[in-house]
Amino acid sequence: MAHQRIPSLKLLMGFEAAARHGNFSRAADELHVTQSAISHQVQQLEEEVGQPLFRRVGRGVELTVAGEVLRRSVQRSVGTLRSGLDRIATYLDPGLVVIAAPAELLHGWLSPRIDQLLVRHPALCPMLSTDESARFIDETDIDIAIADRPLQQAGLMEVPFLKDEWVVVANDALAARLTDLPAARHPEHASLICLEESFTRDDTAALFRHQLAPFRKHVIYDDERLLLDAALRGRGIACVSRLVADESLTQGRLRVLADYPRIEGTTWWVSRVAGEPRSPVVTDVFEWLIASAQ
């Protein structure tokens, strides 16, 4: 079955205005055209759909049954279109800078520093994206990308950014209870909370096979942010990314336990388009990120 050709947007917008006002003259005023133009658009639309859409009532018009069906569909479509245009307008903000990074890094390291960045650049509108599939900066409208390896895309400036490490932590109260105890007795006084992937990661697996093996596993998580929250609640000791826990460590809500090794973690890279970016503020944010990392 062949689909009927969709009338032009111009005809549909003229019809929608006339249907909403119940008057061709007021519809013409809204759209800044003549009344005869609206009448012609409606007539052409009626010819295309094959049935009348309005009937005359006094000095105005009212919809036929077919007109009412079309009005509902057109108004829903116009509403969707206007919503989409409003969303696009966000991307026209001259202060917009889109930064893509893994959620845990945004949550633990960057988000707590955003206020500092906004003080430096009051007109800035940062958009923080956790879309880790954004591997091509200029093709996905990403201004700055933070990743665990260089993107190796032509035309990018890429530099090592942050060096992470795995540390064993506890909240302040639990750390205080463990401070005067030898590490061999820690399993008697604390449980272990951990990430599922920590058992198999090349950099952390040995820690769980040896120093942390005597601990009873209390809860296992698959998201570092959940693990961090549990550690802050005192549910046990945890091996966490220092960058994810950065704010909590700085505030003293978490403490690194000195009796356990600190293990080298991910080196994060930051990238942007080489040369002049689309806006000078992109360069400012890029340089601020590097300076903050140091």
From TrEMBL:
One of the record's GO molecular function terms: sequence-specific DNA binding
Record domain HTH lysR-type: where: 7-64
Assigned keywords, A-Z: DNA-binding, Transcription, Transcription regulation
Any matching Pfam family: LysR_substrate
InterPro entries membership: LysR-type_TF_proteobact-type, LysR_HTH_N, LysR_subst-bd, WH-like_DNA-bd_sf, WH_DNA-bd_sf
Listed GO biological process terms: DNA-templated transcription
Family: Belongs to the LysR transcriptional regulatory family.
Protein name: LysR family transcriptional regulator
Species whose genome carries this gene: Pandoraea fibrosis
